[in-house]
Amino acid sequence: MQALAQELPLKIKTFNNTGGSSALFKALGHPLTSPKIHSLIKTLSSFKRVAVYDPLGAAEELEALYDISKIKIAAVFVQNVNDIGKQVIGNMAQPVTGLKNMDIDAVFVTAFDAARLTAQIQHLLPKGITVLSFDEARLTDEFLTNSRNYLDNLNFATNFVLFREEAGHHTRLITANYWAGYSTKIVGLWCCLFDKDGKVLAQWNEKLEKSAHTITLDSVEIKKRLGLSSFTGSLFVHFTGIAGHDVVKYALDMYGDDDSVLSCTHDANSWPADLYAGLPAPHEGEQVLLWVQNSHPCPVPANGIGLSLMGSEEVLTFDKPIAGFATYALDVAKLFPKARWPQQFEVHAGKYFVRPRYEVIDRKGQRLIAHTNVERTDLKVDPGIPAIGKTMGKGYILPAPVLPIGRWQNILLPTPMSTCQKNLPLMLGIYNSKGQQAGQLSLGKLERSNIKDININNLLGKRSESEFPGGFGHIELTYDFSHGGEADGWLHALMRYEDTRAGHNTETSFGSHIFNTVLVYKNEPQSYAGRPPGLSTRLFLRLGREEGTDTLCHLIYPASTPWHAQSETDLILSDSKGTELIKKNCAYGLRWFFALALP
To answer: How far is 279 from 371, CA to CA, in rounded Å?
Structure first.
């Protein structure tokens, strides 16, 4: 290991809050595209002098993902005059009008849908010259929702899944064909399974129904169906024929031959980020593994990724390379052997992998799976948040369940989730199952480097049934500026639930929003369809499959300003083909909170 002197993230554009997600890195790094790009580079390397025409600024991302050093580049040309003189893949960019004066053997247009771009410079090209572009590496039309715009995000509804079928450990991905509600097109699913070294084990298509139905990919069934050996690695999924949006959401169950492995998490964001946070240090006697899934065809270089303790400037790096599409379980103790809960880490990912899972193995060998979150680098302190306090009521709220205190220990750990958060000024409210406040505690101004965990059970003490009916409820973290401090609205926390009866633990993380108010602040209350305020949503919940298991749905009804006394919530039970079986209103007259169990 060594200290990271200067962070050098992969030079690709993945996501920003203004423009949304980018499809170029997905298009260049797709598992089916990668062999074609290697073949294209080999062909280009056979020419003595190659001119690169980079009209859309994509050459840099190609260089980030592939070794193009064998291409004998004579010059690089650009279309935008503002790019003239800039360094592009090691060459000073020239105006494309200068192409006509070049002695070259081939022109490489670094763009998809390049026919129009090539036609625009046809008068500058020597007769008979070879012109190549990214189009040599296009996916076939069966993968494309919009064949007219190759880089349409709807063409690249992809994601990576941690997938394990090894040593009695199994994985089950469950999602839904929710795109069927947006379009009559038939949605397809293409899968590519990599082993831990990044080698392709299998590629196949899953047959989907036309309705909005459940989709299950179980490692036990897939291993048997495809005749595979045991594996731990990445499952790449690509949904085609979609409409509405390109977000692939799923639940991920980890289960075992015995009950030592029984845990779940959810989807990874499909765009790699510079930083992730919310990775806890282990308790004494625990092991914490960070599952790094290289999301690109290029290797992660030695010392290309690392960890730092939250609030510290020192970054320790992992000193071994990780091959393209490979998966590696990084034991955090190898870098920080003395770190202990409630300390937490920042993951310096360099845009090499999507939001990673982590696995906690306790003293008994029992395992829990959870995930980190993207740590925002683009946010700034928002002076408007303290100013809206009286108008927006509670404003930003981070709600989280309090599971029955007779069985569960409920532990809260606030987690800084943007680089501008030097402190977290917080108030903790505890509510019973009827929405009545059972306690309130100012946490003060928590410094980034010194955040302690909070045991909710200890705060509640011994409460009577009338004070805390059913023994469950919820908490709300809100901003409290009475001790000073700053805010950016990107408030997160980790909740750890310890089952005192069965011995299992589980962790999950939450983020804040402004909830259930007709007033709007910036883009809150967030809306998934149309302009804010977002006052309704749909949730996908999967049912347990094992005999004797219950599915628990713990729903919270928070409101930033006074709102309706009851929620209007329907629970709809559908079969595996999307046919509605039961629809039941479950508000039950509760003001803030309710829970429901299905046998």
So the answer is: 8
Alpha carbon distance, N-terminus to C-terminus of the chain: 50
Beta bridge partners of 254: 171, 263
Omega before residue 280 within 30° of 0, cis: no
CA of residue 103 relative to chain centroid, distance = 47
- Of 327, 298, 325, 326, nearest in space to 64 by CA: 298
CA distances from 186 to 239, 456, 578 (A): 10, 48, 14
Q: How far is CA 316 from the centre of its chain?
A: 23
Q: How far apart are CA 369 and CA 516, in angstroms?
A: 31
- DSSP state string for 508-520: EEEE-EE-S-S--
387: tokens are: 């100013």
Query: Which amino acid makes up residue 226?
Result: L
Cα torsion angle, 461, 465, 470, 473, sign? negative
- Tell me the HSE value of 541 on the side-chain side, using a 13 A CA sphere: 17
* pTM (2 d.p.): 0.93
Taking the C-alpha atoms of residue 273 and residue 171, their distance in angstroms, rounded to an integer, is: 25
Burial class, 312, CB count within 10 angstroms (exposed 0-12 / middle 13-18 / buried 19+):
middle
Sequential DSSP letters for 137-176 = GPPPGGG-S-TT-TT-GGG-EEEEEEEEEBTTEEEEEEEE
CA distance 489 to 394: 12
Give the H or E element holding residue 231. Answer: strand 231-240
Q: Which of 106, 2, 12, 113 is nearest to 52 (CA)?
A: 106
d(CA 124, CA 146): 31
> 10 Å Cβ neighbour count for 247?
15
- Residue ranges in the chain whose pLDDT is less than 50: 1-6, 588-599
Residue carrying structure tokens 């036990």: 220
Place of tokens 């193009």: 68
Contact between 166 and 5 under an 8 Å Cβ cutoff? The reply is: no
* 3-state secondary structure at position 423: strand
Q: Which residues contact 209 (CB under 8 A, 6 or more apart)?
A: 177, 180, 577, 578
Neighbours of 369 (CB within 10 A): 23
Cis peptide before 533 (omega within 30 of 0): yes
Reduced to 3 states, what is the DSSP secondary structure of residue 251? strand
Residues 580 and 589: their CA atoms lie apart, in Å, by: 25
Residue 530's Cβ-count burial label (10 Å; 0-12, 13-18, 19+) is exposed
pLDDT at 547: 65
Q: Phi-psi category of 435—alpha, beta or left, where left has phi over 0 and alpha has psi -120 to 50?
A: left
Scan for tokens 């946490």, then name that residue.
443
Contacts of 100 (CB under 8 A, 6+ apart): 123, 124, 125
21 conformational bin, left if phi > 0, alpha if psi -120 to 50, beta if neither: beta
Using the structure block, give the residue that is written with the tokens 């036309």: 210
- Chain Cα centroid distance, residue 245: 16
Taking the C-alpha atoms of residue 22 and residue 11, their distance in angstroms, rounded to an integer, is: 13
Number of residues written out for the chain: 599
Cα 398 to Cα 3, 415, 511, 591: the distances in Å are: 35, 12, 6, 17
Contact between 142 and 241 under an 8 Å Cβ cutoff? The reply is no
Structure-block tokens of residue 199: 């080698």
Beta bridge partners of 563: none
